[in-house]
Each structure stands twice: as C-alpha cells, then as structure tokens.
Specification:
It is built from 4 helices and 8 strands. α1 packs across α2. Bound molecules: inosinic acid and magnesium ion (MG). The site of inosinic acid has 16 residues, from β4, α4 and β7.
Length: 179
Amino acid sequence: MLITRDQIAARIAEMGRQITRDSAGEPVIFVGVLKGAAIFLSDLIRAVQLDATFEFIGVSSYGARTAGPEQRLAWDSSGEVRLTKDVDQSLRGKNVILVEDILDTGLTLTFLKRLLLGHQPKSFRVAALLDKPSRRKLAIEADYVGFTIPDVFVVGYGLDYGERYRNLADIFVLAGIEA
Ligand code: IMP
Ligand code: MG
C-alpha cells in the first residue's frame, strides 16, 4: 500500500479548500478524464464549496504504456492520443478545471490542454491526484497535485491495470509491473 484512503481523504479536503479559495465567487466546471479520474472527481467536487458543475471527457492512447527505452511519444505527429468522448457543452468563457487521476509522461494532458484551450475558456487549471514527475516527456504541470510519487505503477482509487483494481479504496503499488 502506498497511499491510504484516510490520506487520500485528508488531501482531497485540503485541495478542495484551496480550489474554493482560488475560485471564490466564480462558477467552475470540473472536467474529469475517463475513466481513471471518475472516483477522484466525485470526491473532489464534494470537497469544494462553489457553484460547481462537472463533465467527462474520454481519451485513449495507442501503445504508449508499453514502456521501453525506444518508446516514442510524439503525440503531435503520430496521433498517439485520441479523443473518445468530448464534453457535452461548450466551455467558452467558463472556468475549467481538468481533473486527472495521474500525470505521468504528460502526453494526455498536453493533448487535452490544447483541445480545451480551443474552447476559449475564461480560465484553465489542472488538478491531478497523483504526479510522477520523473516520467515526464513533455513539459507540463498540474496546478493542484494530490501526491507526488516515485516511478512505480499504481492501482486503486480509479487507477487500473487492464481495467482491474479501480474499485480499491486505497492506492497500491502493483508489484512486478514496470511503470
Ligand atoms: P500520460 O499521458 O503518460 O501522462 O499518462 C496519463 C495516463 O496514464 C493516466 O491517466 C493513466 O490512465 C495512465 N497511467 C500512468 N501511470 C499510471 C499508473 O501508475 N497506474 C495506472 N495508470 C497509469
Ligand atoms: Mg487513465
């Protein structure tokens, strides 16, 4: 076990207070990235005291997780990340907070940031439950980070390995898996 449910709850309460302070008096749309961020989003939105709504967006990446020294992540040219579900409303003029389970190489977030900025939101911020900065391939950071973790593969609290383990209440390191 890497992060317990109690640690997650305490940290999300803090993140909720910080987002509430930063967005005071403003409506906010939280955009969760399916499926991993669904559980984090559901807890985070209940930790803010704001005029809040939420949406989901879906992406899929081709082979980007089959790590190796020759791994290439040229998302811009190869179309490595693909949109599978768009948001249901325009985000133009809105305060958007993109909610991600984990920021790893930065490929997904870079793709989504470019896409969502195309909507011309009033503001754009990112909340990531977990951050693995040592894995970054593209220079991008989240505005709110729950926990910075080392280069290990984690499951639970929304994070999966082959779609399994998302329903674990705590976050675990999956033994024997190269992150
Ligand atoms: P990135 O595009 O490399 O930043 O990857 C982000 C996505 O990779 C996350 O939304 C997760 O779906 C997946 N991912 C990265 N690291 C892990 C992990 O340790 N466990 C489970 N999923 C992960
Ligand atoms: Mg994911």
